[in-house]
Each structure stands twice: as C-alpha cells, then as structure tokens.
Amino acid sequence: MARTVIPFGPQHPVLPEPVHLDLVVEDERVVEARPSIGFIHRGLEKLAEKKDYVEFTYVAERICGICSFIHSQTYCQAVETLMNVPVPPRALYLRTIWGEMSRIHSHLLWLGLMADGMGFESLFMHSWRIREQLLDIIEATTGGRVIFGSCKVGGVRRDIDDETASGILKELDEIEKDMREIARVFLEDKSVKARLCGIGTLSKQEAYELGCVGPMLRASGVAQDMRTLGYAAFGDIAVEPVTRTEGDSYARSTVRCQELFQSVSIIRQAFAKMPAGEIAVKVTGNPTGETITRTEQPRGEVVYHLKANGTKNLQRFRVRTPTFANLPAMLKVLPGCDLADVPMIVLTIDPCISCTER
Amino acid sequence: MAYFKMSWLALKWALKKPATSPYPFVPRRLLAGSRGKLSFTKDGCVYCNVCAKKCPTHAIVVNRANKKWAIDRLRCIACGYCVEACPKDSLTLKPEHGAPTITRDREIH
Amino acid sequence: MNQPQAFDVIAVDTLLERARALREQGFRLVQISATQLPDQVELTYSFDRDSRLTNLRLNLPNGARLPSISGVFGCAVLYENEVHDLFGVPVDGLAIDFKGNFYKTAVKFPFGSTKAPCAAPAAGAPAPCAVEEVKK
Ligand code: SF4
Ligand code: SF4
C-alpha cells in the first residue's frame, strides 16, 4: 500500500506547544513517527554561567510554566545539598503544600486539554473552572498564579498563617467535591471511554525499558514515584504510588485523576503536621561539588544535575525533564494506531515541550 | 447511566449563577497576597541603588546624582527581590494590575 | 533524603560492556548529561533501579568520538542526539541519527568548545530512516 507522510505540528489544535511529528501513514494507520523538537530551545542551561546561583532560582522556575514551582524547589534542593544548608522544617512543609497544589492544577489543566482534544468542550470548561479556584488560592498565598516565586535557596519566601490555612482547607473541600464530579464524568462516561480505552497501550516491560516516568510509567503497572525518596516533607507523609496495570490511555487518565485526590490528602496531612518556626535560613558562600537531585513533577521524575566549582556561577546546570523521558514511549506506541488517535496518544503523555527543550 | 453523568453536571450548572464574571464591566477580584505591580514611594528613598543591583532583570535604574528612580515596566517580572532588599521600604508590591503598555519607555520618578 | 552519590569513572571502550551489564541487572537509563570542561567533555550516565542511582562517568577529549549505547538502552537515542547537537560530540552507531537536526539552534553546538561542523558519519552508520526514503 502507498505510504504518505503527514506532518503533525508544530502548530496543531491539540498542541499548546510546538513539537513536530512526521507521521508515515498507510491508509489510516500510522506506521512510523519521527519527532523533531527544538523550536523553542532557549538555552537556559547555558544561562547558568551568567546568572549567579541565587538569581538562577528564577530562571529554573521559568523552565516550565506549569510545573514551575517544583522546578524551583528541585533547584533549591540541589543547591542546598551542595552547600549543606539545613532547611527549616516549616519551609519543607510549605514546599510540599505548594508542590502538591501545582500538581493538582497541572493535572486539572491536562484533564481540560484532554477533554478539549477529544471535543468534549463542556468537560474542558468545567475542569478549568475548578483549576481557577485553585489558582486563586495559589495567587493569594504565593503572589503568582503559575509562577509562584516563593521558593528560594535556604527556604521559602512566604508563610501561610493559621487563619489562611483553615480557609484553604475549607476551599479545598469544595474543590475536592467538584473534582469528584468531573473525575466521574471523565472516568465513567461512555464517549470518553470509547476514545481512550485500549488506545496506545504500553506494557509494563516496555514502559520500564523505554525509561518512562510519572503517570505514564505508573499506568503500566510500575510503582515508581520519586516522592517515595522522602524529599521535602515526604519523609513524614507517606505516599503510595497510584498505579494501574492496563497501560492504555484510559489507565493514564485514571492515574492522573486519582492523583488529584492523593494530592488533596497530602495537602491536608501537611497542614495538620506542619511545625511552627522559621521559614528560611540565611545562605552564605558559594556552592561546590556535584549532585544529582530528583523530584516528582506532575509529569514524572525530573532530574537536576548540578556541578559547581566554588564560584557564584554554576559550572553546569542540566535538567532532564519528564516529557523528554516519555518521548521514546510516545514514539513506541504511535505506530499501529489510527491517525485520528494520534492527538489522544500525544496528549496522554502530557507533553510539555518547553521543559523538554529548556 | 454512563451517558447521563455529564448531562446532570451540565444541568446543575445551567441552573446556577455563571462561574465566570462579565469581565470588562466587572474587573477581576484582586487577591490580597498577589504580587501585582511594583509601586515606588519617593519620600523615603535614598537612591542607594540596592534595588537596581538586586533586580534579576535589570528593570530598575537609579541615578543618585539627579535623584531619579526609573523602571522599565515591561522588564519587571514582579519577583519582589527589590522589595526585600530596599533598606527604606520605599518599594512595595501591590495587588493591582498595571495599565498595558506597548513601548519600552522607562517610568521615571 | 540525599542518597550518597558516586561517579564511577570508566574508560570509553568499556562503556558498552558496562551498559549491557547494568541492563541485565534491571537498571533503567535515567539521563545522560554532558559538561564542557576546558579540554574535554565529561559525560555522566545515570541509571536507576529501585529509586537508587548508579552513575558512570566518561571523560572524552574534545573531538573524540562517543560510542552509542542506543543498542542497549533504546531511549538513549534522544540523549545522545542532544549531546551531539549541543556539545558537538560525534556519536557512532546511533539507532536514529537526527544528523544535528534534533535541536534547531542558530549556532551549531552552542554548549560545546568547538563550533566547527561535525565530521561525516562513520562507516557503517545506519541507513536514513524510512521517512526520508518515502520522500524520494
Ligand atoms: S533600594 Fe530603596 S532606597 Fe535604595 S534606591 Fe531602591 S528604592 Fe531607593
Ligand atoms: S520586582 Fe523583581 S523584576 Fe521587578 S523591579 Fe523588583 S527586582 Fe526587578
């Protein structure tokens, strides 16, 4: 049969960010997919040589517009490891709370994009309505909607007082109730299931060998979650990775939906256990040495490799973002699917291209 | 009943007040903790240049001789570093939205 | 929280062997990262098993060729193309070679020491992928 090459992206209705795929199709079936990225490579890793390590927290936060807070948190954690900074426990708890809030807002964003991608506009509107409530909490506590800017080397820059905390918890109850409603639609509605079940299946073995991370890996049955490493307050708050075994698009959606509620419960526990005290320590001197720090972002494990030589600039700042690790798996599941399912499969890895290219 | 999950949700929200606000007529609710716009109070400022040094985007320019403080609004990312650094508390981040600009003119105080 | 981190320095010609051994023990490739030092490129390969990292370290003189481990860990393709496109390290035996078009940068090899164009692919390099064949 004749083969045709169909370009997918860099501008495509389902893609908020530019990635290009050359899809080789036979009839309606994809036989090969070849990606090319690099449309928005910003060279942020190189910028580390120009900005000092304290200011660089801001750059790290801007690697991604959605997992922004966890990027700055990971960066600060890495620098703190290099400099042996004893971070006050309250700061660690606040980081955990904001980190989980950013996970919820990222998953709700994804849920909306997914619904939008399959043409379910009303579900899209509802998930973003709920996200908006959460963004208001985030803006009121950190000052920014998606760029929190509240993490710094040595701690955090803002505190949440008890009164605000109880207000947040009350609002969180509302948000959780609303999320249950839309999660039920998302997971039980027949039209959604028809679009997702059995699409883009990835076996446990393949997912592991292709180096998948995050919900993509957990949906295939591997219980891996970097939060179990116990960074920030996760030493005190146990996290049980949410897993599914089917490995298809529906399983990945289920994992993300369930993680919404997991994050809500983590926020509640963190508020309950949060100790009083300082929120930051003063940091002096320059970092030396080398470290690899990993945390769990909404999209999966992020790896920071920092190398410092005692000057105020880092020698090497390297980030491996979760989408980068998930690309091979996406290319693996695309061949064999229908052309109409390509957008769904691309969306289920929750692609974040600006992180991928830094 | 798998078909009616969404119909029920849609019906519920059709009867409720809209979740959105009629934007240009009702401006967005300002949140107290928001890092909205940097504002400068001339009175206390000693033109020490600390804010300009601390600013990661080099948005602020201070001229000590002429006692002028200027900011490029399009550069400012509202991070609040200058606010933390200012010894005279001349700078604050207010939860308000700046007017849109299209030129890179410096606002001079 | 912080795991002890060791960087196991190995010679270039043992890389494939070590990678194969790690794969057999059930490790997963986490990342490959390069650092440009004055006269060499330092490569760090991180592998993970049960959330514990094992790192291999290679010191490659500027301009030396790097053997690809994409035959052992399929996902290494992206990292190796990245190392090539950003640092200008020529990589031999890539399963999918983007030939410097993975990142579209204005300057070739922006992170590397040499801004010179890369050498021609070594003999025995894999044939261009099917996409190019179809275009003909
Ligand atoms: S730091 Fe404060 S006092 Fe000094 S120049 Fe800036 S605004 Fe004025
Ligand atoms: S808020 Fe931040 S970016 Fe804006 S002027 Fe102050 S330091 Fe500069």
What does this structure look like?
The complex is a heterotrimer of chains A (358), B (109) and C (136). Chain A has two domains: 1-41, no CATH class; 48-349, Cytochrome-c3 Hydrogenase, chain B (Orthogonal Bundle), CATH 1.10.645. The model of chain A has no long low-confidence stretch (mean pLDDT 83). The longest helix of chain A is centred in the first third of the chain and has 29 residues, at 89-117. In chain A, β2 and β3 (29-36) form a beta hairpin. With 358 residues, chain A is α+β, with helices and mostly antiparallel strands. In chain A, 48% of the residues lie in helices and 15% in strands. Chain B has 109 residues and is α+β, with helices and mostly antiparallel strands. Chain B has a single domain (2-108), classed as Alpha-Beta Plaits (2-Layer Sandwich), CATH 3.30.70. Chain B is built from three helices and five strands. Chain B has helices at 4-15, 50-54, 81-85; strands spanning 37-40, 60-63, 68-72, 91-94, 106-108. In chain B, β2 and β3 (68-72) form a beta hairpin. The mean pLDDT of chain B is 80. Chain C has a single domain (1-136), classed as Beta Polymerase, domain 2 (2-Layer Sandwich). Chain C has helices at 15-24, 76-87, 130-135, and strands at residues 7-10, 28-36, 40-49, 52-61, 66-67, 91-92. In chain C, 36% of the residues are buried. Chain C has a four-stranded mixed sheet with strand order 1-4-3-2. In chain C, strands 5-6 form a two-stranded parallel sheet. Chain C has three helices and six strands; from the N terminus they run βαββββαβα. Chains in contact: A-B, A-C.
Write the layout of secondary structure elements.
The complex is a heterotrimer of chains A (358), B (109) and C (136).
Chain A (H helix, E strand, L loop, with lengths): L2 E6 L11 E7 L2 E8 L7 H4 L8 H6 L6 H16 L5 H29 L3 H22 L8 E2 L2 E2 L5 H27 L1 H7 L7 H6 L4 H5 L30 H25 L14 E10 L2 E10 L4 E7 L1 H12 L8 H7 L4 H5 L1
Antiparallel strand pairs in A: 1-2, 2-3, 4-5, 6-7, 7-8
Helix pairs in contact in A: 3-4, 4-5, 4-10, 4-12, 5-6, 6-10
Chain B lengths: L3 H12 L21 E4 L9 H5 L5 E4 L4 E5 L8 H5 L5 E4 L11 E3 L1
Antiparallel strand pairs in B: 1-4, 2-3, 3-5
Chain C lengths: L6 E4 L4 H10 L3 E9 L3 E10 L2 E10 L4 E2 L8 H12 L3 E2 L37 H6 L1
Parallel strand pairs in C: 1-4, 5-6
Antiparallel strand pairs in C: 2-3, 3-4
The site of one iron/sulfur cluster has 13 residues of chain B, from α2.
